[in-house]
Amino acid sequence: MTHATTVTRSLLAAAITAALALPATHAARAQGATGLEEIVVTARRTEETLQDVPIAVSAFSAEDLRNLQAEDLSALQGAVPNLNLVQGRGSASSANIFIRGIGQPDALQTFDPGVGVYLDDVYISRIQGALFNLHDVERIEVLRGPQGTLYGKNTIAGAIKIVTRRPGPDTEADIEIGIGRYNARNAKVYLAGELTDTLYGSVSGLWGERDGTVTDALTGREYNDRDERAARVALRWVPTDTLEATLAFDTTRQRNALSLGKAEAPLISFDLATNQVVVRRLPDAGEWDRTAASLLPNDPGQKLDHQGASLTVDWAVNDAVGAKSITAWRKLQTDFFIDIDGTELQLGDVFVGVDQNQISQEFQLSFDDGGRFRAVGGVYALRERVESEQAAFADDFLLLLGTPLDFLRTIEDDLKTTSYALFGQGTWEFAPRWAATLGLRYTYEKKDYFRTTSTFSTAFPLLDGTFAFDIDDSWSAFTPSFTIDYKATDDVLLYGSLARGFKSGGFNGRANSPADVSVFDPEYVWTWEVGAKSTLADNRLRLNAAAFFSDYKDFQARISEIANPDDPVPNFGFPVVNAGKLEIWGAEVEAAWVPVDNLTLAAQLGYLEVDYKEFSGRAQGPEGSIIIIDRSGDEPPFAPEWTARLAASYTFEFGTSGAVTLGADGAYRSKAWLSVDNQDVLTQSGYWLANAFVSWLSDDARWRVTGGVRNLTDKVYKVDAQEFTAVGNIQTAYYGDPRTWTLSLRYSF
């Protein structure tokens, strides 16, 4: 019998005993709202109420996430102003995250994320696998603006913190089963309790499946499905009042079909004999009917295995000084087939296999004696290795008198990253109700990259060849932050801040010839922000607002170009350039209001004004000449001018028969580009999405039945896109889920 099995059985026995012995109490039942719940966050690495934190942060409790009908992180789309968080292009597990117009949508391993995702303070290095399921979560915090003086890894746009439930001496257990549209079915379990006087443990698990929402018009196969298993085990040891250690392990397994989108532009081939472009397929007219096609063989799909382990030790050295250590390991393995063109043609059919490992260590020291000064400082180190095998199939790209020529390109690459940092932040209450916070971080990062690529064509051997290169570089930066805040009253906080963000440079991970080999520089941003947080009307109204300006330089852009079009065999390239400069203006308002008992209203509004002040793209002309294209005035992708949300819920009390809560929300996003190149067909016009739910909770709070509908009006809308115009004019859009409904039964004891 394994240790994990012993822990599970001990917890299960304790939970059953508690369920038989615990009497039902009216106090246990969640009552309708009579005021706003106080939210405690750790955005600044110490426990504070949300309203006392002088930065723009949104927080979601487990109950909030249930009301959002959240299955994974993408449920936050629409719930936070100026946040874009969707399933990434062609992948069931990637997270495309932008905050205030800054992010990184490309899952290629040579790009770092623009927004940091943290699982219990452990940084997740890849956007692949970052679309975490939410089966064992206490809360989620979304921090907007540059982060680094308190967080392990520098993140230029912001951070999303996932905080899981911590086991304690109280026995807890939740069991939930659910069904839904597209033959959706899932089960979740959580067991936690005391193992010894000083050792507590928890076990949680998730199983979920859903049929595909996209059908192959040629074969009847289904795509864009869900098939996931996840588990988490945590042991928390509290031997004394001053020492605590938590050991946690999590694992996720996904086995999905392909994720397909719609070809939005004519797809073309090139005939070598006639030197002509041949249109092979026109895009389907009208609104997408959720059909697509793929001729990738053997029903390939997408496989993901993602594991991690962490050991967090907290030690109260004395009443004023604390020490903390976070040791973590993570491993990500993916075997992904992606049909980039989304059709029966073989223009952009690829395989990407990734084997990623990371080890990180963070040490912190904190000081707070209850006086006018408190501080946190530490060191951080990360070692990451990403090995990848890739293959690109393009048998329909080149023709010879109308006959397709087979084309295969294989790639092997290896990226090693070493990152070190020193960071610290101190807050001084220099006058009554006034405080100033100064932070500083020094980051050093070194990357080593090896890539080899080979091309094969039995029909046209001139295409054959192998190219390899080995390159390394390093970067460093100081990133300070400064905040001043004023407590105008006990319920009103005013603040202003200035922070610098940094994202390190890298290498072109799509280089297939010497001309493509390049090193791109780091990105930098300075962000100014002013804001106000207020709790009014006897804790019935919460109103938070912020305005900001960001000066964003050396944006890292992957562009698509035809290389040497006058050659007998035209080639294509995907250079990465530091495109130029952006200026970003914006404002945000978040409000929550309980006008009468049991009724909760919420609203948010985000405004974003952003364009490229400088953007020098490039293309290659005859005989390898470089043509500079000035694209200043274009707009960055995933940065709608307006985001808004309205939500309401009301709880009806029925005494010993329990309570019923009805809720609904609507979220709006204005027009947004989905590609760096601002392709007209890869845009999404403004739209509303509506969701609704009804939930019954028993009088003793043990039973809960919930029914919900997402995308109530069955809106067809785009969320992401692939743009490889140099290869067959590929411009493929990916769409959000259609209308879905769920029905779940939950038992807690």
* Shape estimate: globular
Q: What is the CATH H-level superfamily?
A: TonB-dependent receptor, beta-barrel domain
CA gyration radius, whole angstroms? 26 Å
Terminal residue distance: 26 Å
- From the coordinates shown, what is the CATH architecture? Beta Barrel
Count of distinct structural domains: 1
The overall strand count is: 51
What proportion strand?
over 45%
The CATH class turns out to be Mainly Beta
CATH topology: Maltoporin, Chain A
Low-confidence sequence ranges: 1-31, 564-568
| Main beta-sheet annotation | 22 strands, antiparallel, barrel
Helix content: under 10%
Give a structural overview.
The protein has a single domain (3-748), classed as TonB-dependent receptor, beta-barrel domain (Maltoporin, Chain A, Beta Barrel). 3% of the residues lie in helices and 59% in strands. The chain has 2 helices and 51 strands. Residues 1-31 and 564-568 have low confidence and may be disordered.
Short description:
The protein is mostly beta strands.
Keywords:
749 residues; mainly beta; Maltoporin, Chain A; 22-stranded antiparallel beta barrel; five-stranded mixed beta sheet; 3% helix; 59% strand
Please write out the topology.
Elements (H helix, E strand, L loop, with lengths): L2 H19 L18 E2 L6 E2 L7 E5 H6 L15 E5 L7 E5 L2 E2 L11 E5 L2 E3 L12 E8 L13 E7 L7 E9 L3 E11 L4 E12 L3 E3 L5 E2 L2 E15 L2 E14 L5 E2 L3 E5 L4 E6 L9 E2 L9 E15 L4 E19 L9 E20 L4 E21 L4 E3 L2 E2 L3 E24 L2 E23 L8 E25 L2 E12 L2 E2 L11 E2 L2 E14 L4 E13 L2 E3 L2 E3 L7 E3 L2 E3 L1 E14 L5 E22 L5 E5 L11 E12 L5 E11 L2 E2 L9 E2 L2 E11 L5 E8 L7 E7 L5 E6 L4 E9 L1
